[in-house]
Amino acid sequence: MSFKSSIERLRSNLLANKDEATATTGQAPVASEPSQANVTPACYQFELFPEYKEYTTMKWYYEKQKFPQNLFQPHVGGSDATVMIHDRQYINYSTYNYLALGFDDRVKQAAMKAVADFGVGTGSGRSITGEIDIHSTFEKEICDVLGTEDAVLSVGGYSTNAFTIGYLCRNQDLILYDELIHNSALIGCKITGARRIAFPHNDYDALEQLLKTHRGNFERVFILVEGVYSMDGDIPDIPRFIEIKKKHQALLMVDEAHSLGVIGKRGMGVTDYFNISGSEIDILFGSLSKSFGTCGGFVAGSKPLVAMLKYYAPGVLLYGASPTPANAAAALEALRVMLAEPERALRLQENAAYFIEKAQASGLDTYNSRNSGVVPIMMRDSELALWMSVHLFEDGICTYPMMYPIVPRNKCRLRFFINTNHTREQIDHTIDVINGRLKKAPKSKGIF
Ligand SMILES: Cc1ncc(COP(=O)(O)O)c(C=O)c1O
Description:
Blueprint: H1 3-17, H2 50-64, E1 75-76, E2 82-85, E3 88-92, H3 105-118, H4 126-130, H5 133-146, E4 150-154, H6 157-168, E5 174-178, H7 183-190, E6 195-199, H8 204-214, E7 221-226, H9 238-247, E8 251-255, H10 270-273, E9 283-287, E10 297-301, H11 303-312, H12 325-340, H13 343-361, E11 374-378, H14 382-394, E12 397-398, E13 400-402, E14 413-417, H15 424-440
Parallel strand pairs: 3-12, 5-6, 5-7, 7-8, 8-9
Antiparallel strand pairs: 1-2, 2-3, 4-10, 9-10, 11-14, 13-14
């Protein structure tokens, strides 16, 4: 399979992700007569799977271009504004450890104490004997911050998002989601039997139109959006979504993975940014792998919502292990540090504004990013984005390309996660190096 056809395949996978048609049933095709004709080695030898060929083609491309390998490189120590890889220090824009709490002494101490007190695992799911008081303390304190009635802490961010959607939405329901929603939500949609329709990014009128057309034909209607979009770095008008969902008796779910800890005057996410209560949002999802610097996820909302998720939602708590003592304690301590030191988020916001200002002044395109920790720099195409990423790596700057089909062909970019610890000097240097490299970039060969 050529590189181009690999990419085409990836593209069709992505489009399938966004398919608005009813979900497939997952039933195998029924052959009229038993036949072995379809059973080729490509069905049972991994090295012949087309998916593997995608990987080998990408590897071939790196080798052909003599690109240094910048993926899966182990780092040592913490990873925030800088990162140490193979004895070299890089200015780091690849981490969403936004507030540098992943390597903070207080957070590490809290995790170590939890390991000393409870061990490295709880030995079962939360409802059995996997519960420790750190879980419920985190839930209580996050509710105090967000203004929600209750919350449930779970082991993974991705899984919590996917399985919350997967549990709540049924055949007779409709999911309306922003076209830029994260893959965890898309997978959540796919495991439901609900009808799903993407609406154009932040297009409130298009959403209203969909609701006017379809609301009456479905029981529950879910609207899925993010607090900060992880590719574009923009913040949707959440109060407007609240207005729309109320008008049409729908349920609003906000993914706060990249907003909590970052936006708002205390850095406490969309409720802080828009000065609203979390009780206005039906389902509020948070990840612990970003600002909290650890791993896990939670959902906050009303008592009935959380009770259902706690007792009955497979993959949230049911049929899975509980968050480890270390992860839960780290999250709790990180939350307390965030509240005690709002200057961390404010510094990040200032760094992001400075980065955007400098980039734009030098002629770079930062697209829609505003007031968040995600800043894209738009490239002409995938080849240029990849070339820039590997060459910036050579220059000691760590940032990764977002290429087609993750983003549309004409919207390929480098993505920069801004950190509270970035310095003005690092940002100035980065913008200079990007511009220097862009001047030397070869013409793309149309490989992608
Ligand atoms: C918008 C968004 N939602 C959900 C997730 C999944 O969260 P986690 O990293 O905690 O698994 C991510 C991860 O990058 C994300 O960017």
